[in-house]
């Protein structure tokens, strides 16, 4: 080997094959060479694959060669040279961890380059069911990783690959098929060939180490065609996994906000599950609880899925035992996407509204869970920023917004021009805006991401204003020790941003853990200054005259900060903010 190191051409070959070694992890234990890269080259020389070396010198520019192309060429050349039995045995050289050339061909080949896999199988010296010791993956598992090599998978099935083999995680090839987007033709072929050529039926309800069935994986990824295919062939939707979750739970766990979210149709998917189960006489356990005690309805609300919620309620979901869950937030890697957060917030508001229409009485702590979502996602308009003016003054945004229809008779630009929350509520509903955002607004090509975020924050601020005001009213009244009639309190709150309203609710929460608006009202009615939650206009007028131009201060303590908001209340029932400042507590005695 030493004299070869001084050969310029050979060293060129050496660095060329370093790419193969690093990509495919080939090793050859027969050569006593310490350096792993030399073992790779020695292995190649031992096989006598000179054609590949010539290909490197004549046809290839080293800097522009892709490792998978090199590997495919390498495998094709050395497999085609094996005609004797002893050469056949060399064809499937194994690495130290059991990873063979055949495994590499199944994993890294592409659908339009199946010759390598086919030649291995025709030689008859490879086992289509050989498992990798480390992971337990079969060649069929490797071919179906992310659905990348579907034709190779069908070829393996034709040569006796067992589709029911499980890897180290308990995943069969059907689990892998149900975790990626494939067409119905492939599903038909895979199902038929998997049963015919292996002489054993395809286990459609087999579970992995986490107790998940192929159906549960298909539903969790939003793969409606795959899920319906399995249900039509007898998949049981009521099997519970290790966490006690059935197929219906899987539907109501929005696909962890991953790539599947872009084509996830919660309404159609949930409705399809109920209809297929009814057709197969396998009624769904609509109120089944998982190991954490959550029903599908509670998961749908936690994941802000109003359309799934509607289907569940239409099919018998029990609202009497419903407990409003804490919100599930999007994954950190997706939290930067504005329309994902926008959709989440609108979905949460829409879920609350639909529950109320079906008879559920929203309580104060439920509303606070929704408010916390706005804080987590940063969807609060700041007091010192006029988002409406900045959006309308942005010519690029304004031009694009004029072409976007929120609904049939309302353009986005017209919506932003509305001045008051009441006007917004009259023109657009949560459902209208939810449907608009579901279109993936990031494709609307605003000039700047900042404009898109400002648009989302401003519209959310306007649409949720009345929600925040209604739930902050009694906490605010309590904070000011009931010194003003509720009518004036409403006027004061109308001039506050949602962030202030949220902080008022938090401050009241720190003082009292009352769970409902009724409880808050009852505690407020014990105040000395005012025993009644509401008073008539005749009762309010004299008091209003007495407090004309009263300087009203209210403050709250939260997270080491005292926030003071000062208002002038006039006899015209109007308020003007004259000061707002925050004092940070730097020392606690």
From TrEMBL:
SMART domains: ANK
Pfam families named among the record's database cross-references: Ank_2 (PF12796)
ANK repeat ranges per the UniProt record: 135-168, 210-242, 292-319
Tagged with keyword Methyltransferase: no
Keyword terms, alphabetized: ANK repeat, Repeat
Entry's transmembrane regions: none
GO cellular component: cytoplasm
Protein name, UniProt field: Uncharacterized protein
Native source organism of the sequence: Trichogramma brassicae
